[in-house]
Amino acid sequence: MYHQVGRFTKIPPDHRASLCLESRFKAQMVLLKILGYKVISLEEACKGIFDKGTLPPRSAVLTFDDGYQNFADIAWPVLKRHNYPATVYLVSQFIGKRAEWLGNEFDEAMLMDAVTLRRLATEGVDFGSHTRTHCHLTQLSSQEKRKEIFKSKAELEATLNSPIRGICYPFGEYDEEARDMVQEAGYATAVSCVRGAANTSVNRFELTRKSISYGDTFVGFFWKLVMKNKRKDISRYSPKHVIERGMNEVTR
């Protein structure tokens, strides 16, 4: 799980977890190749995990939350050189705008516009929903929750003229109602912020990920990639039923 990749003039302490330096990102993508990892699409991963498909012995999926302009400017050119697929989650009401949920202290937070998104779609980038307004889903009424989940899908499909198959829960927060609405809306996958290897996911609508952030050096990235496979549930990121089930999952 990545957010912003770039060269940052200032690093607000509250946003370190969502930043990755360009130099470190380039090194991380090279390390994947050196270690023999096969970067695959989220769809291919889910087929292997949940549909008894075949996966390469070392597989990785790259996801990017929010849809920042620096994905197009910095991250995507690197991914193209390595022929790595990626999924980017977009906030449908903030296309081409600033990521206001980050507050006023962080100016380097412009999001990709529709023209850029359509160009990247033709180049193979997979896009998903990150709701309409990057809201806290667990704090919304059922009606508001439905609007965020259903309308974001419709708005993004109209913008990109292609199906939106995945969704990412903003702030990693969701509940059983949100999960069920995601399925009802016609999404095929949903990713969370629960840490762990993907095959510790309880289902394809509560997928686990590993967050890559500003503090992850070459060694730190290696440690997360190779060693930190055990599932770690946090109540903020997953409802009680997921924690109870997830604690019993074993990484293959």
Describe this structure in words.
This protein has 252 residues and is an alpha/beta fold. The protein has 8 helices and 10 strands. Strands 5-6-7 form a 3-stranded parallel β-sheet. The protein has a 3-stranded parallel β-sheet with strand order 8-9-10, sandwiched between helices. A two-stranded parallel sheet has the order 1-2. α4 links the parallel β6 (87-90) and β7 (126-129). 39% of the residues are buried. The model has no long low-confidence stretch (mean pLDDT 91).
What features would you highlight for this structure?
alpha/beta; TIM Barrel; three-stranded parallel β-sheet; 14% strand
Radius of gyration: 17 Å
Structural class, judged by helices and strands? alpha/beta
Specify the CATH class: Alpha Beta
Mean pLDDT: 91
CATH T-level topology: TIM Barrel
Question: Main sheet, how many strands, which sense, barrel?
Answer: 3 strands, parallel
**Judging from the principal axes of the Cα atoms, what is the shape?**
globular
